[in-house]
Amino acid sequence: MSTATPSAPVVVEARGIRKSFGDVEVLKGIDLTVRRGEAVLVLGPSGGGKSTFLRTLNHLERPDAGTVSICGEPLGHLERAGRTTALRERRIAVQRRRTGMVFQQFNLFPNMTAADNVAAGPVHVNGVPRAKARADARELLAMVGLADKAGSYPSELSGGQQQRVAIARALAMSPDLLLFDEPTSALDPEMVREVLDVMLRLREEGMTMIVVSHEMGFARAAADRVVLISDGVVVEDQPPESFFSAPQHERTRQFLGRIL
Ligand code: ADP
Ligand code: MG
Prior knowledge:
single chain, alpha/beta, Rossmann fold, 6-stranded mixed sheet, 4-stranded antiparallel sheet, 12 strands, 35% helix, globular, binds adenosine-5'-diphosphate, binds magnesium ion
């Protein structure tokens, strides 16, 4: 069940995002609006710019053109009285905290326990006292089904457990938005389910999410919209039922023909 409504506030507003690497234009003007509580699944051919686009949403990648606003605040620059001023890196770092990101390769700190991985952001970035941050971390780990793993190091955890720690770590910063970049692609099949279950629960709790994934199960069970990014643009943007059964564009039909 969707928690989003057509009038829910806009969390992500991407307009005309362009990005080139050398001579190759990877993003050719991406537009996307995501409202509070929506879960948007992004599909597209490998190398089509999905990761690059996600990275522009927290300014890990600076677009060459276009703007991204998160909860109404433009990323990377200030617009005031019709003038645009670039923000300093420190200010951009503060903006970035509103967006949590979960990667294919977990990216946990190997020398820290699960609880300390989750507590690190609150302690070092937000200045939360360590005891409080650890207590919060234990609650978040319990929420992702890892109450008994708080003291374990990443090397002692399975891939699915590590990815759930990574999700708890992203949640610890109370983000307005969670970005998932192929979160289950590095997992053995039997671990995919436990990560998807956590994502489904987050969505039921109303978390705003953009998910790059080829998990059709997630698409059907949890996505409010499915978006196809191909050749640097948004080709199709539909609720899952129409995306899969009645896509508007030939390119979407070709893509579905290859993956289904
Ligand atoms: P996807 O996630 O859809 O597979 P990516 O966004 O990772 O696609 O990559 C899109 C294209 O941009 C690919 O051709 C990739 O090689 C290129 N690319 C991505 N990041 C960089 C970079 N930092 N430098 C140069 N080329 C890059
Ligand atoms: Mg990618």
